[in-house]
Amino acid sequence: MAQVMPELRRVLDGDAVPDGLTESDLLELYRRMVLLRTYDERSVVYHRQGRIGTYAIFWNHEAIQVGATYALADDDWIFPSYRESAIGLVRGMPVETVLQWWRGQPSGWWNPADWNVASICVPIATHVPHAAGLAWGKKLKGEDVVAMVFFGDGATSEGSFHEGINFAAVMNAPAVFVCNNNGWAISTPVEAQTRAETLADKAIGYGIPGVRVDGLDVLAVWEAASDAVERARGGGGPTFIEAVHYRVAPHATADDPRAYIDPVRVEEERARECLGQYDGFLRRIGVLSDLVADDVRGSAEDALRAGIAAAEAEPPPDPSLLFDHAYVDPPPNLRNG
């Protein structure tokens, strides 16, 4: 029977470390959050310098991305939306590969099988059935693989979301559905999208568990994701996780949120940002020092500098790539000469 846990799960308010995490794990979570934070901050700068195109900002979403994926095994699959564009970094994907995707360079398209990270999905929710299908296919093959798919609150208003999650539920597929509920689908607030009290309530309609966590608490996200992955791997089927927080940055670099946001609320929420909360927790329990934090930040900054240098060193792509697999005989207006 489907069960929804309505309360927001939090861990960082106390000093207890969740079972299953060592000090090394805690620091690795921190390293990954800093790497993603640094990537996001530098990418906004690169966009303003004209070095990458329009960019979907994920500042303050790092706890969701890092916490959820840390519950996966290497053979498990990740299906990102555009808000998780850099999530391949947690699997060791080169920084320049993700940067090249935003630069429109062919070298930015990776083979998903190399990293078990699907291509970045820009259309809203169309990757949800992809994740459900892969999970079901792996189950049919007897492979011990879980598929985790990320999407925003706006995706729950799309037909593809309902088709994908219902299919996974009916087939008892080993899938985890992670909803990044930051309160906004571009400029549409979540209360204008649904009459449901919570998005996790939608799990009831598919007969699967629904869990709500504080999306700014990386350890709470990890706990919820670990439970969901264990359930999926054990044959218990999919879980819907609603990670709740409030978007404090523009939807993307092409967005001016001043037309629809409450600036006071934004500043209040920025003060609660996820990396700062986790940094404070680690210092409180004696795991993180200034020396370690500086080293982690320095390594992330070095990786970004090297990544942009490598990306910009790539030769310009051959324009014929746009047409080679589109036409047998290119029309006259597209032929050279």
Describe, in plain words, how this protein is organized in 3D.
With 337 residues, the chain is an alpha/beta fold. It has a single domain (4-314), classed as 3-Layer(aba) Sandwich (Rossmann fold), CATH 3.40.50.970. 40% of the residues lie in helices and 11% in strands. The protein contains 11 helices and 8 strands. It has helices at 23-48, 62-69, 95-102, 112-115, 127-140, 159-170, 218-233, 263-270, 274-284, 290-313, 321-324, and strands at residues 4-9, 77-79, 147-152, 175-181, 184-185, 188-189, 210-214, 239-244. Strands 1-7-8-4-3-2 form a 6-stranded parallel beta sheet, sandwiched between helices. α6 links the parallel β3 (147-152) and β4. α1 crosses α10 (290-313) and α2 (62-69) packs parallel to α7. The radius of gyration is 20 Å and the shape is globular. The termini are far apart.
